[in-house]
Amino acid sequence: MSTFKKAQSILRPIFDQYWKDFSKANIDKVIAYYHPDALVVEAGKGGVFGKEAIKQEKTDFNENTGKAPMKVTNENYQMTPDYIIYDAEYEIRSSKSGLQKGRFSQIWKKNKDDYLILREEYSADSPADDNIAKSSEGITADTPPDDKVTKSYDRTTA
């Protein structure tokens, strides 16, 4: 099994539950996915450190967007013995905040039998900018392009 597939098989169910909890604004459950030393960064703007600050950031985000569908595309997974890196593009359409597009990356650290988010970084393109910056997207020799997937997370039904 490729490292892409192995990382995906481990992290996908965890991320799906994380997103369900976030979509339902179960912020206390969401915070449980974060490592005690976690850091959340908005690229080029700043970041927050620690669970309490992250809790406030996630609460503010939910208040600013309201319930809105999120589409995730071009997912990439990379794995080392103690970490899984998850990287993807996202699109959120919200009646409160309009269209938001960007990239996000999460570094999940193995913690006993679980994985917790140690670092999360996201960027948000301006609504007028339809071009999401593209890179090599972390494709490795054992990650064929057809491993890329599109997944939608619907916050409107939460």
TrEMBL record:
Pfam families associated with the record: DUF4440
InterPro entries cross-referenced by the UniProt entry: DUF4440, NTF2-like_dom_sf
Source superkingdom: Eukaryota
Compositional bias per record (Basic and acidic residues), positions renumbered to this chain: 145-158
Domain spans labelled DUF4440: 12-115
Segments for region (Disordered): 126-158
Name of this chain's protein: DUF4440 domain-containing protein
Organism (species): Cylicocyclus nassatus (Nematode worm)
